[in-house]
Specification:
Length: about 325
């Protein structure tokens, strides 16, 4: 019998890099990554019934400490996203943090890193539904640098893909299945030569990037869409709202943003765990402001990186040390 061809091959772009963690936190304990298996019939793999989170750990050289940014807030959102899928997680935010610390230590991570948190229906059963299923929880961590290569001046397009709406697939939670929508927007943008895509919602308002919230600045005043505009309730968005208002003295309105406001903005930037604070300097081949990173974005980025690396005492509570205690410090 002629063997069937193996996987299909895509020739138009380089293959994505495979990440090779050594360990995973799975089923309540740290285990070798290679042992953390799921089967082909896993519900989440077939139907997208998973929720996830992305966290960053920042290495602080002076303190020889890995500081994880707002882990309890990330785990709260993971649990809330899970509730949208009728998933009751047995572990609390504190349990997840304890699990993450053991994982980070097992991996010996003493560098900037990314953490993927995942809750998914692990049943190997047939049937599209959300009830009567069993959630599983996993954490993986690995060294990580930039998500958007051009953080200082990204070129974005307005995607022809529309953001999923709350009555279609709740965008406020990080639901795995809805990231097909993000992936469509992101690939079309990248393959057309842009760094990122902005997506509009059902009302035609600017909603967010494929994996970032968006802010515009005009006449010294910032604006970002409210949580009722089909955005993900971003933790970096919340961080930046506070830093802009409390620290940099910049007023921010949470209000719908029209497409053409982006063309007239002095500054546009994206926020996200991956993108951190990314300046947008071109939208659809039009310069934003003067076509380079604006003053408010630049001041915000400086403050943001001080804060996430634990160098601003006022916001130190957001930075959770991974190594303290184990080493008798
Ligand atoms: N929107 C989407 C669609 C995202 O995937 C992300 C990344 N998690 C964000 C916004 C930013 O959220 P956060 O700041 O919590 O990472």
């Amino acid at each position: 019998m002629t063997p069937l061809p193996q996987d299909s091959v895509q020739l138009d772009s380089p293959p994505a890099r495979t990440i090779e963690p050594r360990f995973a936190f799975f089923r309540g304990r740290v285990m070798p990554y290679a042992d953390a298996h799921v089967g082909l019939l896993t519900h989440a793999l077939n139907y997208g019934t998973a929720v996830f989170g992305g966290l960053r750990g920042y290495w602080n050289e002076e303190e020889a400490e890995l500081l994880v940014f707002r882990p309890l807030d990330h785990f709260r959102r993971l649990r809330e996203s899970a509730r949208l899928l009728r998933m009751e997680l047995a572990c609390s935010e504190a349990d997840l943090w304890t699990g993450l610390r053991s994982l980070l230590r097992a991996e010996g991570l003493r560098t900037d890193c990314y953490v993927r948190a995942l809750a998914f229906y692990g049943d190997q059963s047939l049937g599209v539904r959300l009830h009567g299923l069993t959630p599983e929880v996993a954490l993986v961590a690995f060294p990580f640098d930039r998500y958007v290569a051009n953080e200082e001046g990204a070129h974005v397009c307005l995607s022809s893909w529309q953001r999923v709406g709350d009555n279609v697939l709740p965008a406020r939670g990080k639901i795995a299945g809805s990231y097909v929508n993000s992936a469509l927007a992101k690939s079309d943008a990248e393959l057309a030569g842009f760094d990122e895509a902005l997506v509009l919602n059902d009302h035609g308002h600017v909603c967010e990037g494929s994996a970032e919230n968006v802010f515009v600045v005009r006449g010294g005043v910032a604006a970002t869409p409210p949580v009722s505009e089909d955005i993900l309730e971003g933790i970096t968005r919340r961080t930046v709202l506070q830093l802009l208002q409390e620290d940099l003295g910049v007023a921010v309105a949470e209000r719908p943003i029209d497409r053409t406001e982006v063309f007239l903005a002095d500054e546009v930037f994206l926020t996200g765990t991956g993108a951190q604070v990314t300046a947008v300097t071109r939208v659809d081949h039009r310069s934003v402001g003067e076509g380079r990173m604006g003053e408010i974005t630049s001041r915000l980025r400086q403050r943001f990186f001080q804060v996430v690396r634990g160098r601003d005492a006022r916001y130190r509570g957001w930075c959770a040390p991974a190594w303290r205690d184990v080493e008798g410090r």
